[in-house]
Write a structure and sequence with these properties.
Strand content: 15-25%
Radius of gyration: 13 Å
Number of domains: 1
CATH superfamily: NAD(P)-binding Rossmann-like Domain
Order of helices and strands: HEHEEEEHEHEH
CATH class: Alpha Beta
CATH topology: Rossmann fold
Distance between the termini: 20 Å
Oligomer: single chain
Helix content: 25-40%
Strand order of the largest sheet: 2-1-5-6-7
Length: 134
């Protein structure tokens, strides 16, 4: 369980966010949450091999293809695919990983924590921002 201080730190320090599974479809939760992130001044980088561009930002097929430093990797994937995204976040040198509501992978979370990343699991970035990010 994350403390309020940890969540506040993530919101304050993690300004460049790679969103794994970001969709250009406005009806998808990844699109709504990422649009909100952008409205609050965060730099959102789409990571989705099935998209070319989202919100006017080039979409990258894999996290390793992102050419800039990443503070936070936000994961909008099924739980069984989250581990690969977490491993990619570790390899990319991210500071934190955020697995959205319903995305649970205890082993991946442990690997990230052992690598020194801050980890949030099974929580909605947008909902938590309203509590800790303002």
């Amino acid at each position: 369980m994350n403390t309020p201080e940890e969540l506040k730190r993530i919101f304050a320090e993690c300004r460049t966010i790679a969103v794994v599974g970001l969709s250009s479809d406005p009806s998808r939760p990844s699109n709504g949450v990422s649009g909100f992130m952008r409205s609050k001044g965060y730099h959102v980088i789409p990571v989705n091999p099935f998209e070319t561009e989202v919100f006017g930002e080039k979409s990258f097929p894999k996290l390793e293809d992102v050419p800039v430093g990443i503070d936070l990797v936000d994961i909008f994937r099924r739980s069984d695919a989250a581990g690969d995204a977490v491993d990619d976040a570790i390899a990319a040198g991210a500071n934190a990983v955020w697995m959205q509501e319903g995305v649970i992978d205890e082993a991946a979370a442990k690997r990230a924590e052992e690598a020194g990343l801050m980890v949030v699991m099974d929580r909605c970035w947008l909902k938590e921002w309203y509590v800790y990010g303002q």
